[in-house]
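User: Sequence in, structure out. Go.
Assistant: Echoing your sequence, followed by the structure tokens.
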Amino acid sequence: MLHLKDIEEKYKIGQKIFEQLFKLSDAELKTKLLDLLNGEDNDILTNNCTCKRIIENEVPSEINFWFYDGIKVNWSGVTMVSEHGQESKVIKFNKNFKL
């Protein structure tokens, strides 16, 4: 079981990476995600997808791209979401991750 300090440490590392991505324009973010995903699932990012950025209590919390299936980005990493709701983490933000 993860201890609270472990989760806090992972959050601090991941949130810094996420905030860098949150500052990018939609076009820049799509390009960066295509690079990170090695071109996989580019139908979501290359089609006319919807981008939704969520800020909670003045803190960026999530970015979503949707075109039937979706890509969800938050402090923990990048998650693929099928149009039926099944989620699969494809990238984890940790101390070894480089943007």
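User: And one key feature?
Assistant: The radius of gyration is 13 Å.
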